[in-house]
Amino acid sequence: MRMIATSVPAAAAMAVLAACNSSTSASPVVVCGPDNVATTDSDVVIVNEYEAAWYYASVDAIPVVFYDPSGASDPDAGTASSAAAASAVAAAVGTYFPNRCATASANGNVVTFVLTNCTGPLGLVATTGTVTATLTLQTNAVGVQLSGNHISANGATINLASSGTLTSSNGQKTLTANTQTTGTGPNGNSVAHTGMYTIVWTPGTGCATLNGTLNGSGDGGNVTSTQITNYVACTDKCPQSGSAVASFSGGGTVTLTFDGGTSAQCAASNGTSAALALQCP
Questions:
Q1: What are 228-259's pLDDT values in tens digits?
Q2: Which pLDDT score, from 0 to 100, does residue 21 have?
Q3: Which residues of the chain fall below pLDDT 70?
Protein backbone atom coordinates (compact mmCIF):
# COMPACT_ATOMS: atom_id res chain seq x y z
CA MET A 1 0.00 0.00 0.00
CA ARG A 2 1.18 3.58 -0.75
CA MET A 3 -0.11 7.09 -0.40
CA ILE A 4 -0.95 9.29 -3.40
CA ALA A 5 0.69 12.72 -3.16
CA THR A 6 -1.38 15.46 -4.78
CA SER A 7 -1.49 19.23 -4.62
CA VAL A 8 -4.92 20.39 -3.46
CA PRO A 9 -6.38 23.61 -2.03
CA ALA A 10 -6.55 23.79 1.75
CA ALA A 11 -10.35 23.39 1.75
CA ALA A 12 -10.11 20.19 -0.27
CA ALA A 13 -7.20 18.80 1.71
CA MET A 14 -9.37 17.88 4.68
CA ALA A 15 -11.67 15.88 2.41
CA VAL A 16 -8.71 14.01 0.97
CA LEU A 17 -7.40 13.18 4.44
CA ALA A 18 -10.69 11.57 5.42
CA ALA A 19 -11.27 9.81 2.10
CA CYS A 20 -11.23 6.17 1.07
CA ASN A 21 -10.02 6.01 -2.52
CA SER A 22 -9.38 2.97 -4.67
CA SER A 23 -7.53 2.41 -7.91
CA THR A 24 -7.86 -0.11 -10.72
CA SER A 25 -4.08 -0.44 -11.01
CA ALA A 26 -2.29 -3.72 -10.28
CA SER A 27 -1.48 -2.40 -6.78
CA PRO A 28 -4.69 -0.76 -5.48
CA VAL A 29 -4.24 2.31 -3.35
CA VAL A 30 -6.40 2.64 -0.28
CA VAL A 31 -6.25 5.98 1.50
CA CYS A 32 -8.51 6.45 4.53
CA GLY A 33 -6.89 9.35 6.32
CA PRO A 34 -3.32 10.39 7.08
CA ASP A 35 -0.65 7.70 6.86
CA ASN A 36 -3.14 5.31 5.29
CA VAL A 37 -5.46 4.81 8.25
CA ALA A 38 -7.33 1.96 6.51
CA THR A 39 -4.32 -0.33 6.36
CA THR A 40 -3.06 0.81 9.77
CA ASP A 41 -6.41 -0.02 11.35
CA SER A 42 -6.50 -3.37 9.57
CA ASP A 43 -3.03 -4.22 10.88
CA VAL A 44 -4.03 -3.34 14.46
CA VAL A 45 -7.12 -5.57 14.23
CA ILE A 46 -5.28 -8.47 12.60
CA VAL A 47 -2.46 -8.45 15.16
CA ASN A 48 -5.07 -8.34 17.92
CA GLU A 49 -6.72 -11.39 16.32
CA TYR A 50 -3.38 -13.21 16.37
CA GLU A 51 -2.92 -12.32 20.04
CA ALA A 52 -6.39 -13.71 20.74
CA ALA A 53 -5.41 -16.92 18.93
CA TRP A 54 -2.36 -17.36 21.17
CA TYR A 55 -4.58 -16.83 24.21
CA TYR A 56 -7.01 -19.41 22.87
CA ALA A 57 -4.26 -21.98 22.39
CA SER A 58 -2.89 -21.19 25.86
CA VAL A 59 -6.07 -21.62 27.90
CA ASP A 60 -8.76 -23.52 25.99
CA ALA A 61 -7.39 -26.90 27.07
CA ILE A 62 -7.45 -26.08 30.79
CA PRO A 63 -10.19 -28.26 32.36
CA VAL A 64 -13.04 -26.06 33.55
CA VAL A 65 -13.00 -27.82 36.91
CA PHE A 66 -9.85 -25.81 37.63
CA TYR A 67 -11.73 -22.52 37.65
CA ASP A 68 -15.49 -23.07 37.29
CA PRO A 69 -17.24 -23.00 40.70
CA SER A 70 -19.95 -25.36 39.39
CA GLY A 71 -17.27 -28.09 39.27
CA ALA A 72 -16.27 -27.82 42.92
CA SER A 73 -17.64 -31.30 43.69
CA ASP A 74 -15.65 -32.93 40.87
CA PRO A 75 -13.18 -35.49 42.27
CA ASP A 76 -10.39 -33.87 40.22
CA ALA A 77 -10.95 -30.46 41.79
CA GLY A 78 -8.55 -31.21 44.62
CA THR A 79 -5.68 -31.75 42.20
CA ALA A 80 -6.19 -28.45 40.41
CA SER A 81 -3.08 -26.27 40.46
CA SER A 82 -1.35 -23.76 38.23
CA ALA A 83 1.29 -26.37 37.35
CA ALA A 84 -1.38 -28.94 36.50
CA ALA A 85 -3.09 -26.37 34.26
CA ALA A 86 0.20 -25.72 32.45
CA SER A 87 0.74 -29.46 31.96
CA ALA A 88 -2.75 -29.84 30.45
CA VAL A 89 -2.08 -27.02 28.00
CA ALA A 90 1.32 -28.40 26.95
CA ALA A 91 -0.12 -31.88 26.40
CA ALA A 92 -2.81 -30.51 24.06
CA VAL A 93 -0.52 -28.47 21.78
CA GLY A 94 -1.14 -30.74 18.77
CA THR A 95 -4.86 -30.05 18.96
CA TYR A 96 -4.35 -26.34 18.33
CA PHE A 97 -1.24 -26.47 16.10
CA PRO A 98 -1.52 -29.58 13.89
CA ASN A 99 1.03 -31.18 11.56
CA ARG A 100 3.68 -31.32 14.30
CA CYS A 101 4.64 -27.70 13.66
CA ALA A 102 4.70 -26.84 17.37
CA THR A 103 6.11 -28.14 20.61
CA ALA A 104 5.07 -27.12 24.10
CA SER A 105 6.69 -27.78 27.44
CA ALA A 106 5.54 -27.00 30.96
CA ASN A 107 7.91 -25.87 33.70
CA GLY A 108 5.87 -25.22 36.81
CA ASN A 109 3.10 -22.86 35.75
CA VAL A 110 4.86 -21.64 32.58
CA VAL A 111 4.11 -23.13 29.16
CA THR A 112 6.64 -22.48 26.40
CA PHE A 113 5.43 -22.87 22.82
CA VAL A 114 7.99 -23.19 20.02
CA LEU A 115 6.27 -22.64 16.66
CA THR A 116 7.63 -23.28 13.18
CA ASN A 117 5.47 -22.05 10.29
CA CYS A 118 2.32 -23.03 12.17
CA THR A 119 -1.29 -22.68 11.21
CA GLY A 120 -3.33 -22.37 14.39
CA PRO A 121 -6.69 -21.35 15.84
CA LEU A 122 -8.77 -18.27 15.02
CA GLY A 123 -7.16 -17.54 11.66
CA LEU A 124 -3.54 -17.78 12.79
CA VAL A 125 -1.29 -18.52 9.79
CA ALA A 126 2.43 -19.08 9.22
CA THR A 127 3.51 -18.27 12.76
CA THR A 128 7.08 -18.86 13.85
CA GLY A 129 8.71 -18.02 17.16
CA THR A 130 8.55 -18.68 20.89
CA VAL A 131 5.54 -17.75 23.01
CA THR A 132 5.35 -18.21 26.77
CA ALA A 133 2.13 -18.38 28.76
CA THR A 134 2.30 -18.04 32.54
CA LEU A 135 -0.81 -19.49 34.20
CA THR A 136 -2.02 -18.66 37.69
CA LEU A 137 -5.13 -20.24 39.19
CA GLN A 138 -7.31 -17.66 40.93
CA THR A 139 -10.68 -17.84 42.65
CA ASN A 140 -13.04 -19.06 39.91
CA ALA A 141 -10.61 -17.88 37.21
CA VAL A 142 -7.22 -18.43 35.58
CA GLY A 143 -4.76 -15.60 35.08
CA VAL A 144 -2.53 -15.80 32.01
CA GLN A 145 0.38 -13.65 30.87
CA LEU A 146 1.59 -13.89 27.27
CA SER A 147 5.03 -12.82 26.15
CA GLY A 148 7.33 -13.31 23.17
CA ASN A 149 9.58 -11.24 20.95
CA HIS A 150 9.84 -11.09 17.16
CA ILE A 151 7.12 -13.65 16.54
CA SER A 152 6.13 -13.78 12.89
CA ALA A 153 2.60 -14.50 11.68
CA ASN A 154 1.43 -14.19 8.08
CA GLY A 155 3.54 -11.13 7.30
CA ALA A 156 3.35 -9.54 10.75
CA THR A 157 6.15 -9.30 13.32
CA ILE A 158 4.88 -9.13 16.89
CA ASN A 159 6.25 -8.51 20.38
CA LEU A 160 3.66 -9.98 22.74
CA ALA A 161 3.03 -8.24 26.05
CA SER A 162 -0.42 -9.02 27.40
CA SER A 163 -2.17 -10.29 30.52
CA GLY A 164 -5.65 -11.76 30.80
CA THR A 165 -8.16 -13.52 33.01
CA LEU A 166 -10.14 -16.59 31.90
CA THR A 167 -13.58 -17.40 33.31
CA SER A 168 -16.33 -19.85 32.39
CA SER A 169 -20.12 -19.54 32.57
CA ASN A 170 -23.09 -21.24 30.88
CA GLY A 171 -20.87 -23.30 28.61
CA GLN A 172 -18.90 -20.31 27.33
CA LYS A 173 -15.36 -19.21 28.07
CA THR A 174 -14.45 -15.54 28.37
CA LEU A 175 -10.98 -14.06 28.46
CA THR A 176 -10.57 -10.41 29.40
CA ALA A 177 -7.19 -9.06 28.30
CA ASN A 178 -5.05 -5.99 28.85
CA THR A 179 -2.57 -5.56 26.01
CA GLN A 180 0.61 -3.59 25.38
CA THR A 181 1.67 -5.54 22.31
CA THR A 182 3.89 -3.87 19.71
CA GLY A 183 5.19 -4.74 16.28
CA THR A 184 4.45 -4.37 12.60
CA GLY A 185 1.31 -5.60 10.85
CA PRO A 186 1.16 -7.48 7.52
CA ASN A 187 0.71 -4.17 5.64
CA GLY A 188 3.90 -2.79 7.21
CA ASN A 189 2.29 -0.42 9.72
CA SER A 190 3.23 0.06 13.37
CA VAL A 191 0.75 -1.64 15.71
CA ALA A 192 2.02 -0.40 19.09
CA HIS A 193 -1.06 -0.01 21.25
CA THR A 194 -2.57 -0.39 24.69
CA GLY A 195 -6.09 -1.32 25.62
CA MET A 196 -8.58 -3.90 26.82
CA TYR A 197 -10.63 -6.46 24.95
CA THR A 198 -12.62 -9.64 25.53
CA ILE A 199 -12.63 -12.98 23.72
CA VAL A 200 -15.74 -15.15 24.09
CA TRP A 201 -16.06 -18.64 22.69
CA THR A 202 -17.98 -21.89 23.01
CA PRO A 203 -15.56 -24.85 23.18
CA GLY A 204 -15.57 -27.01 20.08
CA THR A 205 -16.83 -24.37 17.65
CA GLY A 206 -13.42 -23.12 16.48
CA CYS A 207 -14.69 -19.53 16.54
CA ALA A 208 -14.48 -16.64 18.99
CA THR A 209 -15.94 -13.13 19.22
CA LEU A 210 -13.72 -10.13 20.02
CA ASN A 211 -14.84 -6.79 21.44
CA GLY A 212 -12.60 -4.06 22.77
CA THR A 213 -10.91 -0.69 22.55
CA LEU A 214 -7.24 -0.25 21.64
CA ASN A 215 -5.61 3.13 22.14
CA GLY A 216 -2.86 4.80 20.13
CA SER A 217 -0.63 3.47 17.38
CA GLY A 218 -0.36 3.87 13.68
CA ASP A 219 2.62 5.17 11.74
CA GLY A 220 2.99 8.80 12.70
CA GLY A 221 0.65 8.34 15.66
CA ASN A 222 -2.39 9.29 13.60
CA VAL A 223 -4.70 6.52 14.82
CA THR A 224 -5.84 7.58 18.28
CA SER A 225 -8.12 4.59 19.00
CA THR A 226 -9.59 1.48 17.42
CA GLN A 227 -12.98 0.17 18.57
CA ILE A 228 -13.52 -3.52 17.69
CA THR A 229 -17.15 -4.69 17.78
CA ASN A 230 -18.44 -8.26 17.42
CA TYR A 231 -15.44 -9.35 15.36
CA VAL A 232 -15.79 -13.10 14.78
CA ALA A 233 -12.57 -14.99 14.07
CA CYS A 234 -12.61 -18.68 13.10
CA THR A 235 -9.99 -21.32 12.41
CA ASP A 236 -9.01 -21.54 8.71
CA LYS A 237 -11.38 -18.74 7.69
CA CYS A 238 -11.41 -15.02 6.95
CA PRO A 239 -13.01 -12.81 9.62
CA GLN A 240 -16.66 -13.80 9.57
CA SER A 241 -18.32 -10.60 10.77
CA GLY A 242 -17.86 -7.47 12.85
CA SER A 243 -16.38 -4.03 12.48
CA ALA A 244 -13.46 -1.85 13.55
CA VAL A 245 -13.75 1.93 13.83
CA ALA A 246 -10.52 3.95 13.84
CA SER A 247 -10.50 7.52 15.10
CA PHE A 248 -7.55 9.65 14.04
CA SER A 249 -5.91 12.92 14.93
CA GLY A 250 -7.39 15.89 13.12
CA GLY A 251 -10.90 14.45 13.38
CA GLY A 252 -12.79 11.84 11.43
CA THR A 253 -13.21 8.07 11.52
CA VAL A 254 -12.60 5.10 9.29
CA THR A 255 -14.76 1.98 9.59
CA LEU A 256 -13.75 -1.48 8.39
CA THR A 257 -16.57 -4.01 8.05
CA PHE A 258 -15.90 -7.76 7.78
CA ASP A 259 -18.28 -10.29 6.22
CA GLY A 260 -16.33 -13.50 5.71
CA GLY A 261 -14.86 -12.48 2.37
CA THR A 262 -11.28 -11.82 1.36
CA SER A 263 -11.67 -8.06 1.66
CA ALA A 264 -12.97 -5.63 4.26
CA GLN A 265 -15.21 -2.75 3.29
CA CYS A 266 -13.68 0.59 4.22
CA ALA A 267 -15.88 3.64 4.82
CA ALA A 268 -14.66 7.09 5.87
CA SER A 269 -16.66 9.64 7.83
CA ASN A 270 -17.00 11.84 4.73
CA GLY A 271 -19.06 9.14 2.98
CA THR A 272 -16.46 7.68 0.63
CA SER A 273 -15.61 3.97 0.55
CA ALA A 274 -13.30 1.31 -0.86
CA ALA A 275 -12.41 -2.37 -0.51
CA LEU A 276 -9.30 -3.42 1.41
CA ALA A 277 -7.77 -6.82 0.65
CA LEU A 278 -7.19 -9.11 3.63
CA GLN A 279 -4.54 -11.78 4.15
CA CYS A 280 -6.75 -14.71 5.12
CA PRO A 281 -5.85 -18.36 5.84
A1: 999 999 999 999 999 999 887 777 788 999 99
A2: 42
A3: 1-36, 68-79, 217-222
